Amino acid sequence: MKIFSKEQIYKGDKVTEEQQSLPPSELMERAGLQIFNWMHLRMQGAQVPIHVFCGIGNNGGDGLVLARHLITHGYNVEVYVVNCGNSRSKDFLTSYDKVKDVSKKWPQLLKCETDFPDIHRDDIIVDAIFGIGLNREIESWIKALFNHFKASSAFTLSVDIPSGWFTDKPIEDNEGVVRANYTLSFQSPKLIFFLPETADCTIQWEVIDIGIDRDYLMTTETEYELISKNEVLPMYKPRDKYAHKGDFGHGLIVGGSYGKIGAVHLATRSVLSSGAGLTTAFIPKCGYVPLQTSLPEAMVITDADTNKITAIDFDIKPDAIGIGIGMGKFPDTVSALKAFLKNNKAPLVIDADALNIISENNDLLKLIPENSILTPHPKELERLIGEWSNDFDKLKKASDFSTKYKVLVIIKGANTIIVYGQKKFISVTGNPGMATAGSGDVLTGIITGLLCQKYNPLESALFGVYLHGKAGDLALEEYGYQSLLASHIVDYIGEAYIDLFKQPEQPQQEEVEAENS
Ligand SMILES: NC(=O)C1=CN([C@@H]2O[C@H](COP(=O)(O)OP(=O)(O)OC[C@H]3O[C@@H](n4cnc5c(N)ncnc54)[C@H](O)[C@@H]3O)[C@@H](O)[C@H]2O)[C@@H](O)CC1
Ligand SMILES: Nc1ncnc2c1ncn2[C@@H]1O[C@H](COP(=O)(O)OP(=O)(O)O)[C@@H](O)[C@H]1O
Ligand SMILES: [K+]
User: Fold this and answer.
1) Fewer CB within 10 A of the end CB, N or C, for the chain?
2) Where are the beta strands (DSSP E) in 277-378?
3) Predicted structure pTM score
4) What is the pLDDT of residue 513?
């Protein structure tokens, strides 16, 4: 699903109005009606007090359309206009007049703190004060209004975007914003729903379709895209009945040191479980017996050294290599990585200590093959690209890094972001149960396994991050947040593949008949 920028949304409105020859404020009518339908479906006429707070731009206009429908359907509604200036939008004024057609009560004008209404914790707040048009700091009395919402603990439904948040830059005052329980976002979600510093703007969100021109939506390239099942399903490569293991490539995991052979086990098993035909681990000698015993499907090649990697020599021809897991940064290992990068021709997934070594030896960056996949967690990313001032700055720096060195950067986190030059993909699979030792090693293994099977680097990164998160989500159902282990994620890679082809559950015929009767 594409995430449109504010500028693209405004352009989409214009194109739609032209293409569909819409009368003025028709899109606002659609927006307000859709929000009403959403509420009506859930509230079924319940007389809970609903406080609709409207700004004076089009977001406020949407709020007024909603309020009008709530009033005509007999809901218990109070409408307020948050008077923060004189530049009321044309469509706002049209909606304002229409509210007066259906109610004798004028919307209450709020101008300062003494005007604030009482809000009970069981009431509902609709926040239609600022939308994507917010363009400057908010006055302090409006921030006080936002705090009044918060203090009430009432359920807060935000229209399009919680008020006070910008679509493309951080907020300056952490207190001067609305934090919504639910946000109904028009046509596409907002980027801020997915970034660590801003995701608490809303607990849940949903996209509302207001019929923006389909061609425009299809043909407009966006900087950000959400990745879920719909996006990865077309990448899946089905298996031919007569396929043999030679068709699915040979994956190599290079890593491990004394006490960290388990990490290699997890990654190697993930290469196998994601579908590679053959898999080899290159490790120090100390890992030979444990790995051969615990993972009979894998082959093992050892370094000359017992405890660490000192020279990455092998006589196999891997189709993809995942390197860095549990490897340490011993001087001999640093030299081994340098020598390896100079000679290597295979596609790479670079993780953990290999990333840390590269961060400390910038001259190695130019040795990384084009389209290699780097999988840093935030601390490793900082070592690579330097400090950032906020999430937007982080994404810009990561994009510049990806463009400069022609590599893919996977920023791991609650919502993992795959950076491919200036384009960014956000994966929404995964859960906090995966914040556990070794889960990153599993991701490296999965992506290496996909590269082996001739998924191209971008597909491997997107599909790999999706499968990893999905396997974690499925494993969660069995183990719960606390007991989920990285090896459980590996166990569920197969279920994650199978789930690709499961349809959402359809209601049984009897249920449909009961609903219709
Ligand atoms: N395709 C879409 O997504 C559509 C969006 N619509 C709505 O239109 C909204 C955008 O409308 P607008 O562009 O009018 O913008 P907003 O309604 O977000 O607000 C802009 C108004 O607030 C003022 N303002 C901005 N920052 C302020 C501040 N800090 N303090 C006081 N006043 C401030 C502006 O001068 C302007 O008058 C969307 O968020 C959405 O709710 C719909 O009405 C139609 C279709
Ligand atoms: N709260 C979370 N929600 C979703 N995924 C998470 C969360 N915390 C961690 N993960 C995922 O778990 C993995 C952790 O990787 P990493 O930090 O490298 O762990 P390790 O080094 O222990 O293997 C990443 O893929 C990350 O996206
Ligand atoms: K809003």
Assistant:
1) C
2) 278-283, 299-302, 320-325, 348-350, 373-374
3) 0.93
4) 62
